[in-house]
């Protein structure tokens, strides 16, 4: 039946047989019942609302990452200290100070070590059919490098290579053929075999300064590294070089005499190279034909084509970069005036020196201590990985691993964060008082045009890389890798730097740096993990720790220098050292920029949950989260300041110059400064 009729029928059924008094009583009962039910419903709703509010109050981020972050903050914080009075003691009060012996073992060190351990496992993994062909090649090389017993085989390989390249006079003695030796031809042979060939001349491929998007070959005077002075006196160096020559078969008296001459020649070349560096002459951009007319002592077209091995070959009309005439004349004159025997002894010694780390077992069996071959604290695995990184462009395992730990979603979050940082730097420029108009304009241009890189190249970077590394001892495999890698790099001459720039990408350590000349920021993927950035936790933690990690970069983008740093020295207490002034300024700038960037993110995306079960607001947690960094500052000099309280003063200055922090912690006071940063 229809609802209105039903209601009428119900009314008739209820009241038809009732007296007036009964009807009144029933009406009252019904009314009381309705009122009671209404009150019950309202009360239930009120309690439900209260319960929901309480649930909302305790609700927070409860995933495993958030719980770990909350426990870490609880571990550090001393709740008995008022953050308004001593923020460092509040935030780091329960952290045990590092002893002098463990100064370097802070959070950054732990993070980098964890990263290296995971990456080392990638190099050590079994070669799989599904691995990229370049990954298979790199794994084979790593395995060969780790096998120290192969060093005995490598020793023989190296000795044979020296003979093929023209011979090592000190070893061959009177049998060495001086007539047939030519250092230029020996250079070509070494290049073809994949050994060090840039002893007397160096040829690189660089971006063309006169061409917006192109490469150019650059002839330069090679560096003359004197690694011996760090470990030996001059007399000990002579002895070491002679001992190595003897291990290769030289007679004792000949080794002592001829290697002494080789060392003297090295020191002469080093002196010339140092003087040339001090002059700082600019490179000439000239054609090969023009170069040949000015410097006819070498066949430059043949030299460049033999070294680069490019197809098609360059012509006399090809432009190259070349040092000043005075510098090159002085250098080549010294090289060419040297006796052939001296040229060969020095040339072959540099080849041997370059390969000493791979034949140390043989040398140790000869009771020679090549103590500068491996860093004292570097493991064999770290050494092998560094060698491979140096000779791949870039390391395939590095590339694929970084792409694994930086998936596209995380990359997008980091790019968004960096975008907010740049926007807030621009806002800050309008409010700071310690830059003049020209400095502000320069900083604004720098911020707008800065290029930021932090991820590995895409896999297409491997398309032009061809490594024909066969099995064998490590030196044989490594020399083939070096040859193929140089062929690949030289072959980029006719490519666009815009498309191939990442061929020079290398995995860096725990640092980020600003390349001033190119206005580029390189952020190591190593630091974009762990306590610095984690995509599974709230952004108030990520923005705060990224601000601390990039504080030096933010400072430099504003044109940071000692000169203008002195303009704001009034913010620091008298007697604080200059380097503490620098750290205070970087702290203040990064705190301002990262906090404002986060608040802008909140405005665009909404409020975030607190960390369960902590009773701190997201804003308070923002200021507390970088404690993982500043509670264990890992700079040895700065750690000494931690002990005498100077760093505590720095944090107080950051607090004093940041009223927003005081407001977030509901501090009822604000210490007036003598001057204002922003």
From TrEMBL:
GO terms for biological process: protein processing. One of its GO terms (molecular function) is metalloendopeptidase activity. It is a single-pass type II membrane protein. The chain crosses the membrane at residues 21-44. It comes from the Eukaryota. GO terms for cellular component: plasma membrane. It is found in: Cell membrane. This is Peptidase M13 N-terminal domain-containing protein. It comes from Photinus pyralis. The lineage of its organism: Eukaryota, Metazoa, Ecdysozoa, Arthropoda, Hexapoda.
